[in-house]
Sequence to fold (292 residues):
Amino acid sequence: DIALDRAKSTRSARPIWFDQGMERALIAHSEIEQGIRHGLEHGQFIPYFEAQVDLLTGNIVGFEVLARWDHPLSGPIEPSRFIPIAEEHGLIGRLSEQVILNALAQAVAWDPSIKISVNISPTQLTDSWLAQRIVRLLAETGFPAERLVVEITESSLFADLDLARTIVTSLKNQGIRLALDDFGTGFSSLAHLRALPFDVIKIDRSFVATLATDPESAAIVRAVATLAEALKVPVTVEGIEDATTHAAVAGFGCSVGQGWYFGKPISGDQVTAMLRSRHVAPSAHKLSAHTA
Ligand code: C2E
Ligand code: MG
Ligand code: MG
Ligand code: MG
Fold:
């Protein structure tokens, strides 16, 4: 059988680096891609919310929206399993819109003191319509632009700084705030601070995780806090997991924190219930860490 022979010879002619493990990984990859397309059609990408807390008062000042894939079989799937694949296949824009629309539609009913932060992928910062798309989501949900924070990572700025600047300017003109996410992990962090008008600097979790045990991490976080204070840009610290870290970053003058010490990401319904149980006054939206 000629066809079979040909198939056999193609098989043997395969480069040796293409091993079975890689083949399985490719199949898994394309299955996830198909799954994402299916999930988008069925509204399976939903927001989880992580509380952001005033480090001095303990009040909840906002929530960061974190995408979860509410897969009917595997349950909520973490972003690292699907965001890179969605980015690679040009699906991240649709996915983000689904998550942000859902998040704002829920958050519009919460206390007006609460800000909502959303994440934007590097590939989205090459979309010249990004600002218009976000403005449309605000219009659709009635969520005020002034309460929206768009988090962009340093690596977002590498592809096309001029386009990034144009998008960022349109966002700012609408009253939307801008946060520099994962600060300290990219190249020329300091140059980026000058190049774009950030309203918030978010210190990356990698420095915070080792702060209590590693004097160098503590020195970096303190230096960033000092720099930010000089630039009059407030600092948000991510990844606070214990009281020692909380006390340390508050001592460095950082204004807002988030992390498992204050609470893990929860669904919108859980946020609604939590805010309701804390009564109505904004000042009553306190998180006591030992119950979280
Ligand atoms: P990020 O924006 O730096 O988000 C913070 C990540 O750290 C979140 O992981 C969060 O769950 C995790 N985290 C928060 N506090 C703690 C803590 O105290 N300890 C530890 N160990 N981890 C903590 P998650 O949800 O897996 O998100 C990972 C990344 O995925 C995010 O990093 C963000 O860059 C990206 N991402 C999440 N949602 C979206 C989205 O809707 N759109 C886009 N484009 N990217 C998203
Ligand atoms: Mg973020
Ligand atoms: Mg971050
Ligand atoms: Mg980070």
Notes: The pocket of magnesium ion (ligand 4) is lined by residues 182, 204-205, 238 (CB under 6 Å). Strands lie at 45-54, 60-71, 75-77, 115-120, 148-153, 177-183, 200-203, 235-237, 256-257, 266-267. The radius of gyration is 22 Å. The first helix runs from residue 2 to 13.
